[in-house]
Amino acid sequence: MEQFNKELNDLQTDNIKVLQHLSRMIMTEKEGCAVTAKRIDNYLCDLENLCIKSRVMLEKYRPTTAASISNEVNELICDICGELEVTREGWLHIRLNTLLPNCKYRISNYIGDTISRLILNYDGELPYFEKAFMAIVEFCNYENHKALDNDNKGWKMIPNAIKGSVIEDDSQFVLSVGLFTKISENVYCDIYIMPPEDGSIFMGMLESDYI
Q: Which of 111, 95, 120, 102 is nearest to 40 (CA)?
């Protein structure tokens, strides 16, 4: 219990830092857009890192007798964060109930950690590709997007999350990547991993709004 309390105190310290970011945003007025954006990124990054740290540190203390409760919690997390399936074409489809984070200033590994957990909790058999095309499709509009410019979209943690379970490596000779956007009032992000030769099929489905 001594180690458990020590780690709880560690999490509490990190939580105070997160709240301090929020307090600075509340108390500071008339800042420029760049300063405000940086403060937002600092807050979100530390908050998401705290979430990941809490997941890792606290999970090992879960009583083994609480297995059924743990399963219920994991199902709830999947409902909140997203879902994973294998399509009839044999593609891996991951849906996130959020958009890619803005990585202009800072970024956490929250999305990568979430995808890793969705893969870990998947009951079926995952496809494995020697070479793959990964298509990332964000559904949003001009009002509810997170990052308008593609170079500010935080997607680079996704290949790391699928490496080893779906693809062997994420080098440019193994994995090709495409970023796409569909106008939508509802905000979410679809990720498809497929054989490279299926890329033209995917593009046709995307153009015809079958995705």
A: 102
